[in-house]
Amino acid sequence: MSKQVEEKERVVIRFAGDSGDGMQLTGDRFTSATAVLGNDLATLPDFPAEIRAPAGTVHGVSAFQIQFASRDIMTPGDHPDVLVAMNPAALKAELKLVEKAGTIIVNEDAFTQRNLEKAGYASNPLQDGSLDGYHLYLVPMTSITVRAVEELGLTRKEAERSKNMFALGLVSWMYGRPVEVTLNWLQAKFGDKPQLYDANVAAFKAGYNFGETTELFATRFEVKPAPAEPGVYRNISGAAALAWGLVAAAERSGLQLFYASYPITPASELLHELSRLKNFGVITLQAEDEIAAAGIALGAAFAGSLGVTGTSGPGMDLKAETLGLAVVLELPMVIVNVQRAGPSTGMPTKTEQADLLQSLFGRHGESPMPVVAARSPSHCFETAIDAARIAVTYRTPVIVLSDTFLANSSEPWRLPKVDDLPTIDPAFATGPNAGQEFMPYLRDEKLARPWAVPGTPGLRHRVGGLEKNEAGAISYDPENHQRMTDLRAAKVDRIADDIPPLEVDDPDGDAELLVLGWGSSYGTIQAAVRRVRGAGRKVATAHLMHLNPFPRNTGEVVRRYPKVLIPEMNTGQLAMLIRARYLVDARTFSKVKGLPFFAEELETEMLKVMDE
Amino acid sequence: MSEARIDEATGDGDGAVLTKKDFTSANEVRWCPGCGDYAILATVQSFMPELGIAPDDTVFVSGIGCSGRFTYYMDTYGMHAIHGRAPAIATGIATARPDLNVWVVTGDGDALSIGGNHLIHALRRNVNLTILLFNNQIYGLTKGQYSPTSEEGKVTKSTPFGSVDHPFNPIALALGAEASFVARTIDNDRQHMTEILRRAAAHRGAAFVEIYQNCNVFNDGAFDMLRERQHGIHNQIRLQHGEPILFDEDTRCISVGENGRLVITEVENTMKDRIVTHDEHGRPSLAFALAHTAGHGPTEPTCIGVFREVDRPVYGEAMIAQLRSATDRLGAGSLEKLLRSGDVWTVE
Fold first, then answer.
1. Residue B236: phi, psi to the nearest 5?
2. Phi, psi for residue B33 in degrees, rounded to 5
């Protein structure tokens, strides 16, 4: 039986199931095959905080969304074209997102009376007509999977666990994904566990063949590779890119990377990734608490390492005192904050970018600290390197802002050449800097103080939280405190001379509106701007990577446009800074739902602001 | 600190003999006149040359409180850190740089209250540190509040009706944290303190030394029953490995009483085989029992000396070994290869 092939420009698929159903893995594998095929893509994992929430309930649903296309795309998509629902709860939780007339593939076996009740359905949606208008496919995934693996001698429960591979196989068939990518991965993952390997392969192939042979699916779809700059590509998550960026910074500076961290969602991935890289000489230390993690990293920095700590919001609260010490010690240190929805424990697995003001001001006293933010998963790589460069060059702690969305989502990345990466000079102090004397707080032209590490002959000195003078002696002199406060601020401000100006995307130079963003909203802002421009309107965008200090031309840029709109996953933190600093009437578009912006809501808001 | 390092450092030297002066910074010492900290500082500065480790290779890290100022008075590398965090910061230093001789100076409030977590974890990990805890049973720098080692009923500015808090026993706490070296000494007994410092410095891993320190302003006389010679000869129980535990001019002893409990008895009324022989290296239960012979105060006979010393893997060394074995097994990491690991594709 030959099947029709229909070409599509772009597709959004959402895999959803119980948090124990392996949906993240399914999505991740589909993403790898899609990346290798050469589509552009963006992903959005969306899972509950509970590791195994009560099975079958709506709040235990774990989902993974991917948009892939034959052109460049910027977001994981607002609304899925295809929903794969492994049980009634997944259908119930995710249906509202699905495009009108979208495709829904359900695991029919899971729609039992008990599961329907657990999901809160009064009647079976597969039968009561509530899915009329959707393309609904009922596939008995569990029973086919169990049959496919029955020769292998697994228990029924074990056999059923492979049903996510069945779903992956089926959707891989529907969209013509290369099977070798998945089979190779299964080989690497389960090669030493033959029974599990065989079961997963059998389930995957059963899904693939089900699509091929049954008459249920008349059409398969083709999404051609997206045009891309020549180069070597890979798919990369924000968490991996950030970890590798730190490794790159260590390599390009000749410093030992010393990463101290306490487990916290969603920053633990960084600790996991770096812990694997021992053969790069990376020291990782799982500290007793967040405070210790910061202290250990700072101690390592004092001792001459590239000291890094990583955490999320609650951990940043705890580290604040140590960061204040790092400011006054003027030692290089990188602090990664993978932001999540707060306050307090908030929604640990959901994204937000509400720690900007905390990064700038969340310490007592005048405590200026550079802040950089990544805008996409792959951009985490260069953001980490730049943070380390600023930290080492200016002898200062630097905060890197990522977020849950950036850390967990992925995109294709054209690999940089290692030789082209910036080098970082630790410029350790090796001798006296004031005649025969060594003055630990005597500054260079960048206002940075010398980094004299223990063991260096003749440069013994004491640092500490108490205010010091140039000679490193404790000083309560009023003039000295004023001067040192001013110098610490001026040092951070001068970093603006050492970062690129804020780039503006404004094709005709006469846009009616500037949309200014920072962090992970970049992709969505770009997608929305395309739509607005497609409608014939003129809109400019700019995206800040350096949030302290701002690029020197930031004021000029925001004053250039009649209207400025700042979309943020907070209640207006960058807007507050821009308004305060540049006296510009910037408007906020706020979303704090634990989810990234949708392009359509940004589009609507841009048009609304322009039409006012 | 490892013996290997002592030898190395000595070998590296230009032959000049180190003196107390080499470890004394130019900073004016500003504790209250009569403070026990002066005696501790003088003893430490006098002892350090004996190690043969250059001041350039030595780091002192301290927290907040009167003890925190210690760092400024040592002419070594140093960090006067934040309240309670010195063991964590020193863990970073000692782990990144096993070649350094790292000391932590802390107090009862710093180490046992705000920094309790860092202390126990540095001890459990057996980080290569020598930790000196100045215990004066009071908050001095904040002008006289009760501390986590103050006795119940203590009247202070924050406990005008007496403290209802039960105090920590620092030695028992360190033993509970699986510390590999636990000792106690007294600020004004220079000879004993030097001997304890020598033992602590020679120990590989975390060495915990509690120093009874008199705060003559806010808690004067807290340790008189041990510090003052006329009382000390009766109340100091000086632990010596392998020796029967006798004190009070050998008239009293620690012996095994009912149910195996350790009790203080008159030697002449005690069967010889009931007298406890000190064993630093055995099970921790003996050291734990010895830590509890005195009540909190200390107003009764109290043990000083090395309670326990055992050999355990040193933190940092195991970590470095792991880096080496990973490199041997996987080859030195290549960033180029890392970036290209997994599925990659080429666009022409």
1. -75, 120
2. -55, 135
What does the pLDDT read at residue B5?
41
At A328, the amino acid letter reads: V
In 3D space, the residue among A362, A369, A275, A370 whose CA is nearest the CA of residue A315 turns out to be: A362
Which residues is A462 bridged to in the sheet? Answer: B78
Give per-residue pLDDT as tens, A222-268. 999 999 999 999 999 999 999 999 999 999 999 999 999 999 999 99
List the single residue in B97, B319, B345 with the smallest CB-CB distance to A454: B97
pLDDT (tens digit per residue) in A538-561? 999 999 999 999 999 999 999 999
CA distance, residue B79 to nearest chain A CA (Å): 5
Output the 3-class SS for A68-119. Answer: EECCCCCCCCCCCCEEEECCHHHHHHHHHHCCCCCEEEEEHHHCCHHHHHHH
A343 class by beta-carbon count within 10 Å (0-12 exposed, 13-18 middle, 19+ buried): exposed
**A464/B contact by beta carbon, under 8 A:** yes
Q: Which amino acid is at B37?
A: D
What is the model's pTM?
A: 0.94
Share of chain A above pLDDT 70, in %: 100
Pairing of strands A539-544, A504-505: antiparallel
Adjacent-strand bridge partners of B325:
none
Q: What is the mean pLDDT of residues A273-298?
A: 98
pLDDT score at A234: 96
Predicted complex ipTM:
0.95
What type of residue sits at position A50? E
A-chain residues near B76 (CB < 8 A)? 460
pLDDT at A199 over 70: yes
Cα–Cα distances (Å) from A332 to A26, A141, A415, A447, B82, in that order, read 40, 54, 27, 14, 18
Tens of pLDDT, residue by residue over B333-346, are 999 999 999 889 99
Position B15 confidence tier, pLDDT thresholds 50, 70, 90: low
Q: What is the pLDDT of residues A291-327, one digit of tens each?
A: 999 999 999 999 999 999 999 999 999 999 999 999 9
According to DSSP H, which parts of A131-263 are helical? Answer: 141-148, 156-160, 163-174, 179-190, 194-213, 238-253
Q: Is A152 in the B-facing interface, judged by CB distances under 8 Å?
A: no
Q: Angle at Cα A488 formed by Cα A482 and Cα A373, nearest 5°? A: 145
Q: Do B121 and A229 touch (CB under 8 A)?
A: no
- Tell me the average pLDDT of chain A: 96
Q: Is B99 helix (H, G, I), strand (E, B) or coil?
A: coil
HSE toward the beta carbon, residue B47, CA cutoff 13 A = 19
**Residue A563 φ/ψ, nearest 5 degrees:** -135, 145
Test B56 with A455 for CB contact under 8 angstroms.
yes
Using CB atoms, which residue from B78, B326, B344 is nearest to A234? B344
Strands B77-80 and B58-62: parallel
Residue type at position A7? E
Q: Quote the CA–CA distance of B297 and A89 in Å, as a whole number.
A: 63
Phi, then psi, of A348 in degrees rounded to 5: -60, -25
Element (H, E) at B232: helix B229-235
Give the pLDDT confidence score for residue B295 in this predicted structure. Answer: 67
Q: Which two tokens stand for residue B116?
A: 């309790």
CB contacts, 8 Å: A460 with chain B:
55-56, 75-77
A6 touches A60 (CB < 8 A): no
- The DSSP code sequence of A7-75 is E-SEEEEEEEEETTS-HHHHHHHHHHHHHHHT-EEEEEEE--SSTTPSTT-GGGEEEEEEEEESS---S
Residue A210 burial (C-beta neighbours within 10 Å; 0-12, 13-18, 19+): buried
A443: exposed, middle or buried (C-beta count within 10 Å: 0-12, 13-18, 19+)?
Answer: middle
| CB-nearest partner of B330 from A279, A464, A466 | A279
Is residue A549 reached through a cis peptide bond, with omega within 30 degrees of 0 on the bond before it? yes
